[in-house]
Amino acid sequence: MSVYGDSLAAFGNAQVVEIPPDLIASPYGGIKNTNDATAKNPLGTLYRHKGNVYRYVKFDNGGHNVAALSGGPVHWKALNPAIGTFTVTSDYTDTLMNINAVAGIILNAVTDAYYTWIQVGGVALAKSHASQVAGDVAIGASTDLVFGRIAADGTLTSVPFGVAIEDLSATEANKANTILTSCLRAF
Amino acid sequence: MAVTLKDGLFTFGSNQISEVPPSLPVAASGDIEATNDAAQKAPLGVLYRHKGNVYRYVKFDNGSTDQQTAVACAAGGVLHWYLLDPPNGVFTATSAYAAAPGKNAVAGVALNVTTHGYYTWIQVGGRVMAYVVANTAVGDVMVYSSTDLNFGRCAADAAVTGIPFGVAMEARGTTTANKAYVLLLNLIW
Predict the structure, then answer these.
(1) How far is residue B132's CA from residue B172's CA, in Å, rounded to a whole number?
(2) What CA–CA distances, in Å, run from A164 to A111, A171, B94, B104?
(3) pLDDT of residue A176
């Protein structure tokens, strides 16, 4: 399938995007298991699926070959929507804009240079700061694949990307369900 | 129509099948603001752009389900998430801050006196007349508040201490007592 640099209209893309069929191993459907060797959707396109919102991107494990893992916040590595460039990385040292370049949450162990859907809206089970509690603000961090935090009622010192709605590890070790409020804000 | 599609919240499909009541003379801004459905009439969580604003269809809980003191809904009241599980179609908002999962969990603004356990559209984008805490001035950043049904505030140009959910477009009480027009932010996802 072609990559359309200028065709990220909400409707057109929703009609042509490809979602893998549900897999037994994935109770929520196959979108979370996407690991495409070739691009199967327009890069950057958004898709609303079962109440959450996802963006199709290329994954790059960066100069340090940081393996992707489910729930890890990823940063923009290369971003030029006008020409269809939407590349995210698990390697913080390759981030475009320091801690404020969070692109979304990666959902599986995507292969380097493959394509996948990352979550950008709704509720995501995200790798989070060791002290994260419900109500904390999720921000970018200089640690690979993890959210930083600002305690609830604390002064915001960077871009807020979400809100934790449970304490760390309440559902799964080292993760917290987080409402992604702001990954969609830019585009 | 009563359609529940747990996995049907696609951007366009949901908009096409959601139900908005016809306009009524008593609702000058359009009848979506008067929605108080005993039975679900649109997919939960769906977003709808209507007359320049954006709304989300949710179930309303006044807090009594969680054994908190019931807080009656009010037009302009700030609601928090009570239960939220999008993949399973769970979008329940509450008027009782104590029933929220934590701070910063604002869901949107109620538009009428919705009945406990009923379904309604809450506003999540655009301009809304909302309850705001005392001393709110034009330009203030709207954040969550532990006061039921109210937005908290951070003064313009001061440190922001929570997720910014809006900006006050007028001082409290300018148009309506205890309320202000607010431009909503960060509630559409």
Answers:
(1) 7
(2) 28, 12, 17, 9
(3) 98
Residues sharing a CB contact under 8 Å with residue A144, sequence separation 6 or more, in sequence order: A64, A66, A72, A90, A91, A92
Q: pLDDT digit string (tens) for B82-103?
A: 999 998 889 999 999 999 999 9
**Encoded tokens for B120:** 């309604």
Give the nearest chain A residue to B145 (CA atoms).
Answer: A153
Q: For the whole model, what pTM was predicted?
A: 0.83
Instruction: Quote the ipTM score.
Output: 0.77
Contacts of B81 in chain A (CB under 8 A): 165, 179
Burial of residue A63 (CB within 10 Å: 0-12, 13-18, 19+) is exposed
pLDDT tens, position by position, B142-168? 999 999 999 999 999 999 999 999 999
- CA atoms of A89 and A66, how far apart (whole Å): 8
Q: How far is A83 from chain B (nearest CA, A)?
A: 24
B58 sits in which H/E element:
strand B53-61
A94 touches chain B (CB under 8 A): no
Distance from CA of B141 to the nearest CA of A (A): 12
The C-alpha angle B32, A52, A180, rounded to 5 degrees, equals 95
Q: Are A11 and B159 in contact (CB < 8 Å)? A: no
Q: CA-to-CA distance for B119 and A57, rounded, in angstroms?
A: 36
